[in-house]
Amino acid sequence: MKLDKTETKTSKTEKWLSIIGICLLVIFVLPSPTFVTTSLLHLGFVSHHESAKDKLIQLGQELVASPNRYLASDSDMPLLKVDVSYQDWQVLAQDRALAFETGMIAEKRHMVNGVIHFRGDAYKTKLRLQGDALEHIVGAKRWSLRFDLKNNKSILNNRRFALLSSNVRIHQGLYLFDQTLQKSGFDIVSPQMNPVKVVVNGVNWGVMLMEETFGQDLLSFNNRKHGLVVRLDILKETTDSQGDITRTFQPRAIQRTSILRDPELNKHRMVALSLISDFFEGKRLASDVFDYEKLGQYLATIDVWSAWHALSWNNWRWYYNPITAKLEPIQSDVAVTPAKHYWLTQAVSKEFPVAKKMLSDAKVKEAYDNALAVMLNQLNTGEMQSYLKEKQSA
Question: Is residue 339 scored above 80 in pLDDT?
Fold first, then answer.
């Protein structure tokens, strides 16, 4: 009896791409597995798959395509040259070393002096490590750094900003999330995010993201009245016998010192903090505290993108609008990724207590449903996909 030859499930092209990927991995892994992982992340590789085979195939495909992408890339982006004295750089290095010992960048970290050279001018600045997680500082270079320019100077309309390796924001994911908001007509406060070339103490750090921080520049750019931004801190945390964690939150105004010097802003601060405290204590509905239209739109966009990271308690930021006396959500650290995973294909708001509490308000839920309908219509017609593809290729 003659048996038909079983056809391979992997094409010759896929085999070759796998071989190329394996060879390159072997070459890179010789120094250390951490080195290759960090290098791939900083170079922009984001795996779309879970299996090792599919990851290697994708890596091979992207390596083949990378020369053309490099030639087509924007070479005229702004260049920032950062100079920090040896002594001050060692202070930052010590903060980084401490973070590796404790598993997290300390909340209280040192500020040091530096100078940024940009388009022929020198800008004096204070700087420190940025972020909480170790991904911000894992590489030998391309650390996340936060800058506060002195003498009321600004670079690209920013007085306070962070320079980040794009992988900590999942590369262009944040930009596509922001474009989704704009395409849908949702007026949500969003930070500027500009790609820039960075050189630190003469060492080329490559292309990094210049991210606007939460302050008056952000509000002005988003056509908001002079005001304040509020976040959450943990006041108390307890763990019961089953391991369940209960947290008590306390709202805090960002840049509190400067706010206290302004009588009007300080008055707004007290109102904003009281509103948020009342919401968490169950004394006020979400629609009494927040701009429920904007909150519903923001939560719906998060669910469309499965941008779960934005719903973590420590990533919530709100702008207190003194005209409406309501708090508006600010787009913050949404961490959109193309990876195929259960968590990344679901409506994630139902998994987070703060978001669930907000959506239990009928007005917020109605705004959420209306916003979802707008985006689903654009997705079903393909209008949204075409728009985002065009923006990504621009």
Answer: no
